[in-house]
Design brief:
By secondary structure, the chain is an all-alpha fold. The chain has 9 helices and no strands. Helix 7 packs across helix 8. This is HTH tetR-type domain-containing protein.
């Protein structure tokens, strides 16, 4: 199971307002859906008007009219990916809930799509404020469940450092070391972080 959903059929089109042309609404929905799928499956190289036109069945001219640049396509695709994110429901026990949320994060990183997506945003974050906003949006989205669990149980000043330690440990293990994030590993880092906090 992954944090990132693979389907976009349930998306409520954010662009549609009162009196919106249903054809425009449908076009935007279809293109953003295909852009999100392309970005997750093939990375930033797929964020071209030609590739998205091929995948969505709309003309390049239509896509240029709504999304003048590849970054515009990527921005709306990332917003869609974030909207499709799910987090395990919290049951109220700090360690159990952290274990479940970190397991979901590890599963997402293990499939190789989300970390590549983040890497692309991080690379571009040095170039523009918009890219930095996307980086922050993706990080907030990926860690929202863990942050919420910590906020329920810890003092406010302990939330951010605990989040960094827990997420950092999983990120290094799953991406840099390429080693499976086991249940025992999660138990160990949770104990170390909570123990250090006390």
């Amino acid at each position: 199971m992954s944090v990132i959903g693979s389907g976009y059929d349930g998306w409520m089109v954010k662009f549609s307002g009162d009196g919106a042309d249903p054809r425009v609404t449908r076009t935007r929905r279809d293109v953003v859906r295909e852009s999100a799928t392309a970005l997750l499956e093939d990375g930033w190289a797929a964020m071209t008007h030609a590739e998205v036109a091929k995948r969505s069945g709309y003309s390049k001219a239509t896509i240029y009219a709504h999304w003048p640049t590849p970054f515009d396509l990527a921005r709306d695709a990332i917003e869609q990916i974030c909207e499709d994110t799910t987090h395990p429901p919290a049951g109220g026990d700090l360690r159990t809930d952290l274990h479940a949320a970190l397991t979901r994060l590890a599963e997402t990183l293990a499939d190789g799509r989300y970390d590549q997506l983040m890497a692309g945003v991080i690379t571009r974050a040095g170039e523009s404020d918009d890219a930095r906003d996307l980086r922050d949006r993706l990080y907030e989205n990926a860690t929202r469940g863990i942050r919420g669990i910590l906020a329920e149980h810890l003092a406010p000043d302990d939330v951010a450092p605990s989040l960094s330690l827990l997420v950092g440990a999983v990120l290094v293990r799953a991406t840099y070391e390429g080693v499976p994030v086991t249940s025992g590993f999660l138990d160990d880092i949770i104990q170390r972080v909570l123990g250090a906090r006390r």
